[in-house]
Structures are given as C-alpha cells and as structure tokens.
Amino acid sequence: MHSTAYITRFVLIMTTIVAMVLAFLSFGLKPIHKKNEAVYNKKAILSAIADQLEGDYTKMTDDEVQGIFDKNITQEVINMEGTVLGSEDVIAAGYPGGRAEDIDMRKEKKKSDEDRIFPIYTYTKADGEKLYILSVVGNGLWDAIWGNIALKSDKNTIAGVAFDHAGETPGLGAEIKDNQAWVDQFKGKSIYDEQGNFVSVDVKKAGGTKNLPHAVDGITGATITADGVDAMLEDGLEFYEPFLKKNN
Amino acid sequence: MAETTVKEKKSGLSFGKAERKLLTDPLNDNNPITVQVLGICSALAVTTLLNKAIVMAIAVVFVTAFANLITSLLRTYIPKQVRMIVQLVIIAFLVTVVELTLKAVSYPIYKELSVFIGLIITNCIVMGRLEAFAMANNAYKSFLDGLGNGFGYGIILIMIAAIREFFGKGSLLNFKIIGSGSEYLIDTNTSMLFGWYEPNVLMVLFPSAMFVIGVLIWIQRSWNKKLVDIS
User: Fold this and answer.
1) Who is most buried in A51, B94, B147, B183, counting CB within 10 A?
2) How high is the ipTM of this complex?
3) What is the pLDDT of residues A72-98, one digit of tens each?
4) B225 domain residue, yes or no
5) Which reactions does this protein catalyse (chain B) (predicted)?
6) Which residues of B, range 36-95, sit inside 8 Å of A by Cβ?
7) Does the residue B6 lie in any domain?
C-alpha cells in the first residue's frame, strides 16, 4: 500500500506531464488543423459547382483550392433584407474572420430570423458567366444537414447542389451526400415559377419527377432525411429571396 | 546453441515461441471480438465502410500497443489504489494524440470518425489488456501483447467492414464493383449475368454487424475446435 502523499504526488506529476504534452501538441498542430478545416469547407462549396470547374476538385491540392477562392470567387455576406454587409458587421455578428467563409450556418440557425446573416459566393467562369452559391442548413433524421446550392446567372436555375450531414444513416439518409445520381437530379430545376413566385424544389416520395421543373425524386428508405432536404431548401432559399430579387 | 539462447534471454528482446504466441493468440484462439466479445460497440459503428474500419484498426493498434508499453513501464510506480484512473489517463492521452494527428493528416476521415476515435477510450479491449497483462509483465512483452490484441481487433473489424461494404454498397474501399449505374465495374442495368442483383440495404444498417459477427464466430468455432466448450 502506498501512502496518500505518494498517491497525490504521483497523480499530480502524471497529469501535469500529460497535460503539458497534449497542450504542446495541440498548440503545435493548430495551424494545420485550421488550414485543413478551411480547405474542407471550401471544397464543400466547390462541390456544388463541381462540373463547372476545370479539373476534379476532389483531387486539387490545398493551394489550388485556395487559388480558386482568391481568383474566381467573390464572397459576400447579406442580411435578411438582402443588403450586403461589411466585414465589421460580420465581426459584430460573432465571426472574427469577417468573411463569408467564416460563417457557421448551424450557429446562425439558432439565432432569430432578423439577426441571421447569410454567406453568398459568386463564382465567375472563364467566359464571364456568374454562378451564385447559396448556403442552407436544416435537420435530417438524426442530426443537422446542410448544403450549398449553385444558381446560374438567371438566379433561378440550379447549376448544381452538394449536401452534407452530421450523422445520417450510411446507405440511407447519407445518400444525400454519397449518391451522385440523386444529387444530379437537381441540375436544371428552377426555384421560381413562371410568374416569378418562389416555389423551391420539392423532394417527392412518389417519384417520376424527371420532367417537373420544381421537384426531384426522394430516396427509398430515407423519407425523413429527404423531407429534411425539402424543408431545408424551402426555408433556406427563401432567406436569399430579397437578395436574388434585388439585383435582377 | 546453448550459449546463444542464454544471450538472447539476457537481452530481453528475443523473439521466441512465447513472444510469437503473444502476437498470434489474439488473432484466433483468444480474439478480443469473437472470443472475448469485447469492443463490440465500435465494431458495429465503424464497419460500414472499409476505409473507416482500416483507420480505426490502425488507431486501436497504436493505442493498445503504447498504452500497454507505458503502463508496463510505470507498473511498479502506479499506486494500486488509483491504478484504474491512471490507466484511463494513459489511454485518454494516447487517444487524444491519435485524434490530433488524424485531424492534421486526414481531415475528411477525422470528420467521419471523430466521435468513434474518442470512444476508443472506453473500448474494453484496451482497459482489459492493461489490467490483465501490462500490470504484471515487462514492457517488451506488454508491447507485443498490445500489438497482438490490436491486430486481433483490427482483423475482425476489417473483415466485417469488407463484407458489409461489398454486400451493402457493392464497393470495396469506395471502388465501385457491382451495382446499378455506369460507374460500377459490373453494371446491373446492362449486365446479362448479374441483372438480378440488388445491394442488400440491411448490410449498411447497424444490426447487420451483429449478424456478421455472429456468423464469423460460428465459422471460427466450427473450424477451431479448441474454442468449443466441451461441457
């Protein structure tokens, strides 16, 4: 049996050593972690316009991704009224970086509607055509889902989408990210009807939506996740309406 | 001959029959998952895709081996009254190292695995080996025992993941083999032989891991008679 003094000493020394090593490691790796996270988030945005890019974005190096963001993408932040905010307003909203890419959509969702701010990325293609990438967030079956929606220069037709999720079931709900054929259905659909009213894109259970302008097929076995995508698009895209309408 | 064996024993780093047994025993006769039935929770959770299972297996091999090594080196100093807490600190330390490293090396995989990497701390295999082996054996033997148990866990994990990914999604390591769509090697829409094939969605759900483990135990026991309880 060891004495209490020995045990105390042992535990103190041990925890101090462990804490110091971990703190050192965490501090040392922090720049790499931050960079990885930034590139990961940027690739998520690029995945919405994957087929508009030259080359495969999944194979791009970190610098190439950063290069596209520096050269071809302008990022702006808007509020509920569609007004473009300056970086001081973004900092005031709780993002010290002050840029659109610093915005945490899941954090924004918890705010009241009038306080929310939204990132918008404008990608300019080599031929001068502009694509607008909007970010949306919602709830799946188990946890949050989110996505980036790219609109063509008419601010109506969808050029591409990319969704991601925190914990949907692999093979079922997770198909919103993994099943490229399902994701590709969104291309060419439009979010406004002919009168210019906002209708969003519905995820329909019944299927047979190929020729409908405002609907896509659901996913077998993932009704709740698909409904989540449906609600996310309807709520999320509506927030961008003032901005989309304003500059038309 | 006699002289060399004596020399080897003195160095303490010899690799003889006993040492090999430490490495190979957990692969079959004393497998942590199929024989001791430990570490089942992570075996269910991270085996939907093969690449996830491989990363998890590497992480567990690292943690069991080094947790065993550190615990064994400290075993004469660790006060018996608080040994469990001390072991837990060692495991938590190593798991945090793995987590930080993975976050720096492969961020997308870290994103997919994150919570399960953290849960290695509560993986009964690690704690079990520290308490049962590392507290009573020297550092070299403990390290081998840790490696062996990590491999024993990893090999089952990889087998389950390969079965689940192939039958559930028709792919291995995300290389698409069989399914409906032109990106698959065998496209069930056009193939004459495999037109009937449908991936089994049950395989990507958690219960299927239970069935697969059960079947693996069954196969192992019908082949390895040592494991069958005679009474």
Assistant:
1) B94
2) 0.74
3) 888 888 888 878 888 888 888 888 877
4) no
5) a ubiquinone + n Na(+)(in) + NADH + H(+) = a ubiquinol + n Na(+)(out) + NAD(+)
6) 48-49, 77-82, 85-86, 89, 93
7) no
